[in-house]
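Blinded run. Sample ID left blank on purpose so nobody reads anything into the name before looking at the predicted structure. Input follows.
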Amino acid sequence: MMMNKRVQHNVLVTGASGFIGHHLVRRLIARGDRVTCLVRATSHIDTLRSAGAQWVTGDVTDRASVRQAMAMSQAEIVFHLAGITTTLRKDDFQRVNADGTDAVAAACADCADKPVLVLVSSLAAAGPCTAGRPRIESDVPAPISAYGHSKLAGESAAAGYAGQVPISIVRPPMVFGTGDSGMIELFRAIARWGVHLVPGRGEQYISVIHVDDLVEGLLLVAEKGQRLHPDRSPGQGIYFMAADDMLTYAELGQAMADALEKKHAAVIRLPGPVVRLVGLCGDLIGRIRRRSGWVNHDKMVEALAGSWMCSAAKAHAHLGWSPAATLADRLHETSKSIRSRNGDDSIPSRSSVSGASARIESSAAMDAASIARLEAIAYRCGRSYDSYLVMDLDRLYFWSSGDRAVLGFVLKGSQAVVIGGLIGPDDAREILLTEFMDHCRRHRWTAAFGLVSEHDLPLFDKYGFQSTKIGEDALIDLRHCTWQGKPYEWVRRQSHYCQRHGLVCREISSSLRDRVSELSDISTQFLDRTPHGRTMRYFVSRFDPDCLYRRRIFAALADGGAGRAEGFIICTPYRDGAAWAIEMYRSRQDAVRGTVPFLMHQALQTFKDEGVEEVSLCLMPSVGCTRRRPGDSWLIHTYIRITHRYLNFILDTPGLYHFKTRFRPQCENVYCSIWPKASLRPLHAMLSLWGTLRFSPWRSLHRGLRRLRICRRRSTLVRS
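Blinded prediction complete.
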């Protein structure tokens, strides 16, 4: 069948959620084809959805689901990319790469109108070079790895249907480009340490191809490529595709260094026994983690097998195919895309790449306009008290497609700890979450959201996050708050006492900026009295007068406003100013008793007069965490319980609960949500980022002894 570019074709793509499949689907849709994707239930389809593709849930190893996909798509062309490159069990190679290909080819044969089947195999199916020359299609295959044997078995399975279905096979070498996690690791090693690891002692050559060039080649093969013959003539219907440059491993490292604008990459040659040992260690780690990695024994066997070169002369002659750019240009293009999408400071970049797709932006690269845009969306679309913390410019920012929504995160190793939650319009928040998950999956990051509200919990549950309750948010509904009656007697008493002692509440505006240095001193004195002696994200906020933006400061001034400042509170906005949060409160050690509740009462009354609907008093850690919810993390729940029971002298959670409930708030559950699964690493990353792991033992002992008496008295006030 010959394709006409002016005609829309029905195309089925297996493996569409993978690296090559993602690029192929976008290219097919861009040229006007109707694309259906066969994806597993666990696949991330947000990029396919945003591209406009349809999908069928199934698996290539399930013949019924493959037939269903063929029927629904009415495919004229089938691109079979589904497969696995690493696994803990060698039998999985045969089951997916060989049997899965047989299922797809059989489904094509069952169709009344036979579609063109383009099978994407691998150079590993042909094996390494022999006689010191690049592989050509007519060479006898000689795979040397379990992966290569399974891909060759898949080719043989497809060839069995050559008399019924028009089939072509493409064997690409190492594929690189945007979204490829393997190439990211190579770039990262050169960017961070200036080293490039080379397996073995000899000079081994390697062929590579950029994913965009491969995709164009696949389209040409489907249109006018040679098909397999039933007699299985050597090389018939098979194509190699590769860049024109054939470099040694060492030369490839230097080419990547040039793309990163580094003068030199130190080549470290690893002896064969060391490479094999690394592979065995990778297998062991994979079994412990129950997830295979790209460093394993099978891949190390390939790395030590010699040169992996192939000739694309047949594709040049038959198809008129050639790479659209030089290898140097492609590497430079890939380095730029990795910098913009990976957000790794070890790969320097002045700014991120703009466009319609999701992107990462570093706070260090943001100009005044970018900061203003971030502040506007945090103010307008923030949904919880911590949303405005995204304005603490010490992190990375992940923007969804079209820059409609954003989240801020700090990357600690492979742990992406999100601070501020999902910020954006309601119809863009789910897209933001799925695109961020897709980014984390590609880079093998763990996504950890420290504070997830009850309102957002169903969204996180939908996408498989493991959510554990860590406390409650104290919310005051100002629309129904009167400050009258016995429930508010304590609050009124504190306010009256402070007023009798000459305190007045003033908002620190531009005319009172001379008070800022005084407030900084109060904050420093306050921190000196804590066990940690420093700020703690979420728990003990940082006072930074230069980064207030729309935050509001209320201070208690003595002597009717003419005296010193006794204390202050800072409030942050969210929900377009309809809600505020009392983010921080500080007071002098010798301040008038009740200064902080006085300030809070006065600020709440001011907000009520302005028409504000809700004020959050922020998180009350470990409150109401006795019972576990289905599917939560035993590890995090146990940590919360131990902290609540034995480490209250650090955060004084009973005291926080006792104090905040004096304002009669409504309590809303707050969760910690981790994807794909909670473990020690994301927990440690969050705790170290929050600062809860850094405190002075002597300060803690002193505080613990001082509070020993009141803790017993307060314990009766805290809900289990």
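Unblinding after everyone has recorded impressions. DSSP finds 24 helices and 25 strands in the chain.
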